[in-house]
Amino acid sequence: QVQLVESGGGLVRPGGSLRLSCAASGSIFSINTMGWYRQAPGNQRELVADINKGGRPNYADSVKGRFTISRDNAKNTVYLQMNSLKPEDTAVYYCNLNGWGGYWGQGTQVTVSS
């Protein structure tokens, strides 16, 4: 069994910053891609960013230049630094391990509002 524990969500004003963290633990035999997805009310879950084991990142066009994903393989932890946040970034953010068929965190709410 794999557990993903997320932290760092909250309420922030437009233009502000937040940093999400996600630590994986449990019966992890192989970690390839770690990533973050988000789901806003009425919308489908979408990829925000992911990063492979070699450290190569991949971003959704909507967050390029504003968000930075990183990982610490020794700690099985992935981070998402979110800068210049916009109201449209408001969503529940989910940590993910190994893609759509992999493991998911419980989600953390990010609200961008003045």
Explain the overall architecture.
The protein has 114 residues and is mainly β. Helix content is 0%, strand content 52%. It contains no helices and eleven strands. Strands 2, 4, 5, 6, 9, 10 and 11 form a seven-stranded mixed beta sheet that branches. Strands 1-3-8-7 form a four-stranded antiparallel beta sheet, with no helix packed on it. Strand 5 (46-51) and strand 6 form a beta hairpin. The mean pLDDT is 95.
State the total count of DSSP E strands.
Answer: 11
Distance between the termini: 40 Å
The portion of residues forming beta strands comes to over 45%
Mean pLDDT: 95
Please sum up the structure shown.
With 114 residues, this protein is an all-beta fold.
Topology:
Blueprint: E1 2-7, E2 10-12, E3 18-26, E4 34-39, E5 46-51, E6 57-59, E7 67-72, E8 77-82, E9 91-97, E10 103-104, E11 108-112
Parallel strand pairs: 2-11
Antiparallel strand pairs: 1-3, 3-8, 4-5, 4-9, 5-6, 7-8, 9-10, 9-11
Give structural attributes.
114 residues; mainly beta; 7-stranded mixed β-sheet; 4-stranded antiparallel β-sheet
